[in-house]
Amino acid sequence: MSSRAEILALLRENARYSAEDMARQTDLDPAEVEDVIAELEADGVIAGYQAIIDYRELEDERVRALVELNVTLDRETSYADIAERLAKFPEVEGLRLVSGDYDFDMEVEGDSMSEVSRFISEKVAPVPEITQTVTHYVMESYKERGIVFGDGDDDDRLSVSP
Amino acid sequence: MQVSDRVDGVPPSGIRRFFELAEEMDDLISLGVGEPDFSAPWSARDAAIASLERGETSYTANRGKRELREAIADHQAEKYGLGYDPDDEIIVTTGASEGLDLAMRALVDPGDTVAVAQPSYISYVPGVMFAGGEPLPVPTRAEDEFKLTREVLEDAGAQEADALVYCYPNNPTGATMTGDELEAVAAFCREHDLIVLADEIYAALTYEHDHTSIATLPGMRERTVVFNGFSKAYAMTGLRLGYAMGPAKAIGAMNRVHQYTMLSAPTTAQHAALDALENCDDDVADMREQYDRRRNFVLSRFSEMGIDCFEAAGAFYAFPECPTDDAQAFAEDLIQEKKVAVVPGDVFGAGGSGHLRVSYATGLDDLKTALNRIEAFMD
Ligand SMILES: Cc1ncc(COP(=O)(O)O)c(C=O)c1O
């Protein structure tokens, strides 16, 4: 594995590993780890770092919705143009062009259901190219980006074994 | 009630004491575990569940499901270049443990000498004794990185032995052997006409070079039984499934014991195993990658602490030199004072004393904390 691939694998596992701990897990030294990360950031490969939050464990749970968007294109407007416009809204947490029955898969987050609904009816639906929106409110999240929510696995192994 | 002299003559395992000490401790981090910290791949578990739903709860053929034996033959051919006939050269067993026991009983006569490369997994010596054989410890040496060499075989008098049992990649040392290094062992066994029982249960977990099976070396297939299983590579210890491969005569004799004492290996586990071979290469690769990172981490930390440790290149163990003279005392005090469990090397037989088995089948966070505690303990 290249050192870039190695560092990416480590950061995907835990973006809070220290450079020292990453160095200990690879053949690199801490300075090299820092260099690789700086390079990945500069190249735009690493676009950011975020915590994965289980909102159920928080007092003020956020409301999330997955919104299917259908659009029609014309000569002047491309998917990218529509995406650019939508992505500017801070309410939009995720936006992907997908194959299948609809065009965009949009993730929206807000403090309440009415806030999210209002955002969709007032800001998204009126966009001229958007012909249809279907909103799915997230009722429960079980796994986000590879992390399963819950109590975690208890280690039920014998504490010492041959 | 009276117990047999045969059983009475086998001392209880030295690992027991550490288990009991460790069990008493809250917040213990154990680096003393000899099994993966992962669960079996979901795909394999799912296949087992599906087989239960279909009601497949009967015995299988004595030697294991035909489909599974075929998959084992293909897998072993692809990974290690071994060629065994699923009809009469492969037997599916209840863990590699059963396979080893079958081989001892089927191939060792009372009074036969079985050379046991040590430090080793703790079941070989009792296995030989239960079969009425005489175990002959062959201590490997730290300066050889715990590899088996012609010299240590000769020093131990293994030329007089009838069989040799060993395990590489090794538990407890993490040592591996290359094809060239194994050839010296093979030559010795050919010269002195030894049967070889090769425990290759950690074959999938090597980090510096690919695993070579001694049975692929010239003149060795006819004198070797290879043991492997699903416990380590596929994190399936509790499903109890392994297999043995060897010449039809040896496997037939083992099956004679197996058909009377076991009938067949667990059916549900056989379904999981078949799926594991068909669908779980990526899971194995993932786990292997994580072990390798932890191995690097552990070896780096030992070197930072000034603890001497050779570059263990397989399984999920490092085998550092104990920083103090008495490894037993060190391990006991470490549990009691710092709540970290490791296993002193002498539990694993000759050649292990003065060392500690440190398992890295533990998540990185715990591993890191445990090593910090060891560092603090040494101050
Ligand atoms: C070297 C070695 N051989 C065999 C076994 C037993 O494996 P199984 O679970 O397949 O019986 C172990 C388990 O710790 C082992 O370390």
Q: Which features characterize this protein?
A:
heterodimer; A: 162 residues; alpha+beta; four-stranded antiparallel beta sheet; two-stranded antiparallel sheet; 5 helices; 32% helix; B: alpha/beta; Aspartate Aminotransferase, domain 2; three-stranded antiparallel beta sheet; globular; binds pyridoxal-5'-phosphate; pyridoxal phosphate binding (chain B); transferase (chain B); pyridoxal phosphate (chain B)
Provide an overview of this structure.
The complex is a heterodimer of chains A (162) and B (379). With 162 residues, chain A is an alpha+beta fold. Chain A has five helices and six strands, in the order αααβαββαβββ. In chain A, the strands form two sheets. In chain A, strands 2-3-1-4 form a four-stranded antiparallel β-sheet. In chain A, a hairpin with a 6-residue loop joins β2 and β3. In chain A, α2 packs across α3. The mean pLDDT of chain A is 95. Helix content of chain B is 42%, strand content 13%. In chain B, the strands form three sheets. In chain B, strands 2-8-7-6-5-3-4 form a seven-stranded mixed β-sheet, sandwiched between helices. A three-stranded antiparallel β-sheet of chain B has the order 9-12-11, with helices on one face. In chain B, strands 1-10 form a two-stranded parallel ribbon. The model of chain B has no long low-confidence stretch (mean pLDDT 97). The chains are: A alpha+beta (162), B alpha/beta (379). Chains A and B meet through α2 of A and α2 and α11 of B. The structure holds pyridoxal-5'-phosphate. The site of pyridoxal-5'-phosphate has 13 residues of chain B, from α5.
